[in-house]
Amino acid sequence: MSIVTENYRVHELLIELEQKHSQIDFTSYKEKVTTTLEVKEMTTDQVENLLILTALERINSREPDWTYVAANIYLKRLYRLSAASRGTQSEKGYGSFYELIERLVEIGIYDPLLVQTYSKEEINELEKVIAPNKDELFTYIGILTIAERYLAKSQAGAFFELPQERFMIIAMTLLQNEPTNKRIDLIKEAYWALSNLYMTVATPTLANAGKSYGQLSSCFIDTIEDDLRSIYDSNTDVSTLSKNGGGIGIYLGKIRSRGSDIKGFKGVSSGVIPWMKQLNNTAVSVDQLGQRQGAIAVYLDVWHKDIFSFLDAKLNNGDERQRTHDLFTGVCIPDIFMEQVENRADWYLFDPHEVRRVMGYSLEDYFDEAQGEGSFRQKYWECVNHPSLSRNIVPAIEIFKSIMVSQLETGTPYMFYRDTVNRLNANTHKGMVYCSNLCTEITQNMSPTVLEEERVSDGRIITYKKPGDFVVCNLSSISLAKSVMENVLERLIPIQVRMLDNVIDINEIPVLQAQLTNQNYRGIGLGTFGWHHLLALKGIKWESEEAVEYCDELYDQIAYLTISASKELAQEKGAYPYFEGSDWSNGHYFKKRGYTSDKWQQLEKEVTDKGIRNGYLMAVAPNSSTSILAGSSASIDPIFRLEYSEEKKDYKIPVTAPDLSPSTTWFYKTAYNVDQHWSISQNSKRQKHIDQSISFNLYVRNDIKAKALLDIHLDAWKSGLKTTYYIRSTSSQDIDECESCHS
C-alpha cells in the first residue's frame, strides 16, 4: 500500500478517533503520528503498530482513557485480519455469522453440533442481535487478551472469529439443550449478559465452548486411597484432565507416612513425598492443551507425620530429591490445632495407616460439628492417649512457623479450615470435604474411587470400580462494578445460573467418576470480581466499617438471587439427585446462616418444599485473566498498583486501575498498603453468604514479623473463613495463577 493512500486513511482514522474520544487532547498524538509518516514509508501493519504504540505510551494514571484509543485501533486490525480470512470487507467488521460457523465446522475448529442443533434461520436471527459496538467496551489489554487467547483461529493461527461472535457461540453452546420454544430468547439473554461484560465465564468455557476440542469445567479435586493402584490410577486421571485444560486439587491425607509398614514389613514406606514427585512430573510433562504446564495442588493434614517434609517441598534450599517446585501445597487444619497454636501447646503427629489399623477408624473422616466440641477432637485425643499408637510430639507453634516460612518464600501452603468447611457443608448427608481445589474456592464432598474387581471375560479385561466423589467445579463470575452500578443483578443472575447448570449436562469429562459426581451434586460456582472497582465507584474506603457492612449487604443480595434462581430451575427441571436429606431440604442451610427476614424465610420454605437444582452454588475464584478482559479489578482483592505494565515480547502495555479518575483515585489504596484485618473483616461477612469458599489472598510486606503474620492467620480462622489462598509477600517472585479458575 502506498504512503499516500495510507496517510489518507490515517487522516480519516484520526478524525474518527478524536470525535469518539472528545475528552482526550489529541494534539501531540497527531503530531507524532503525522511526523513519523512523513519521513518513513510503512506497511499497514507498521502504521497500525505506530498508532497503537503511540496511544499506549500516553496511558498513565492521569490519562487512562488512552487505553480505549489503542483498543479502537487494534479492533480495526482485528476486523481487517478476520475479513482477510473470511473473504469479507474489513470496513464492515462482522460478516455473515452463518458462513463463519459453516467454515469453522468445515475446517474442524467448531463442533458440528452447532449446525446440527440450530437452523440457518435461527442463526440468522441471532446474527441480528450481535452488536459490534459492544467491542468498544474493551480496554486495550482486554481486547488483546480475548483476541490472542480465546477467539477461534485456524490451525495456522489466522483470525476468523470476532469478540461478539465468541460471546454468541458461548451462549448458543450453553443453551443448546433448552426447549426450542424458548431457546432463542434465552440465548439472546445470555448474549446480553456476556456482551455487556456484566459477567464472564471461566477460562475453559470461554476458550472451548462451541469448539471441537477441550472441555468446559475449571477445576477438579481427587481423593487418593492408601493403596498402589489408587495412587497410580489417580495420576492417570490427573494427566487426562490436565491434558484437557483442568486444574487439579488432590488430597493426600489417606496415604501412609514415611516409616510406616507395608504388608507387615516395618519402616519401609517412603511416605507422601515420592508420590508428590510423580505428580510434579505429571504437571510438567502433561501440559494444558499445549498452552501451559499442568497446575496441581496437593493437600495434607497438619496431624500427618510427613507434615514437615510436605511444608518444605517447595523451598529453594535443602535436598532437591525432596522438592516438588511445580506443585502447589495446602494444609488441612482442624480447629483444635489453631487452639494448640494459640495456647503454645503440644501437637501430635500420626500415621493415618497406623491409626486405621490400631484404632479401627480414619481420623480424617471426622470433623467438629460445633465450635469447641465434636467428633474430630474426640477421636484425636483418643489417638493421643492410646498406648499402642506411635506419635511424634512437637510444639504446635513449630509447625506453624514452618507454614509461615514456606508462605513467605513460596506463597504457599494454602490454609484449609476443615471444621468450618464441613460444619457449613450443605451435603454432609452424603460425605465430607477433605480439602479444596487449586484456587481454594471449591468445597464439595470428596471420596476415593476404589478398584473392586478386575477379571478376564471373553478375551477382554473388565475392570469394576466403585466411583468416589471426584469434584468438578463449573464457574462464572459477576462483574460487580458494572452490574451493580447499572442495577442488573436481578436480571443477570437467573441466566447466569442457568448457563452454569447447563455446563453440567453438555460437558464431556474424560474421567467418568467426575462425570457422575457432577451429575449427582450438580455443583456450580457463581462468583464475583471487581469488588475494589465497585468500592471506588461508590466512594467507599477499603478500610472502613462502611465497606464491611456493604459487603454483607451486597453478598446477601447475591446469595438470595442465586438460591432463588436455582430453586426456580428445580421447579422447571428437577432438584439435584442428592437433595433429600441435605441442609437445603431440611432448612438447616438457612438457619445456620441466620437468615431470618421475611424474604429469606419465604425462600427457605420454597426450597424445602420444591427443591433446589444445584447442591453447591457459589464460589469466588481468582479470575485475574477474565477480569482483565472485562476491564475490572480481580476477584475480591484490592488492586495491586494504580498503574503497572503487562510485559509483551517486544513492548510493554501500560494498565491503570479501572475507571481511574480524580474522584476514584482516593479510594484505590493498593494491596500492600491495606490493613489485612480489614480484608478479613470483609471476607468474614462475604463468607457467610457463599456456600463454598473464596480465593482470598493475603498481602504482607517481606519484613513482616512472625507474630503479625500469625495474628493475621488467627484472625482469619476466628472470623470463620473457610480457606485462605496465597500469602503475597513483597519479596515473592510472581506467583503462577490457576488459569482454569479465572472465571
Biggest sheet descriptor: 7 strands, mixed
Structural class: alpha/beta
CATH third-tier fold name of the domain at 471-705: Anaerobic Ribonucleotide-triphosphate Reductase Large Chain
Shape descriptor reads: globular
**Number of β-strand runs:** 18
CATH class of the domain at 471-705: Alpha Beta
Summed over residues and divided by their number, the pLDDT gives a mean of 93
How far the N terminus sits from the C terminus, by CA atoms, comes to 42 Å
The Cα radius of gyration reads 27 Å
Second rung of CATH, namely the architecture of the domain at 471-705: Alpha-Beta Barrel
Ordered list of secondary-structure elements with their pairings:
Blueprint: H1 3-20, H2 27-39, H3 44-56, H4 66-86, H5 97-106, H6 113-117, H7 120-129, H8 140-149, H9 163-174, H10 180-195, E1 199-201, H11 203-208, E2 219-223, H12 228-243, E3 247-251, H13 273-285, E4 296-301, H14 307-311, E5 328-333, H15 335-342, E6 346-349, H16 352-359, H17 375-385, E7 392-395, H18 396-410, E8 414-417, H19 418-423, E9 450-457, E10 460-466, E11 471-473, E12 475-479, H20 480-485, H21 489-506, H22 512-521, E13 525-529, H23 531-538, H24 545-573, H25 583-586, H26 588-592, H27 598-610, H28 624-629, E14 643-647, E15 652-656, H29 676-689, E16 698-700, H30 706-718, E17 723-724, E18 727-729
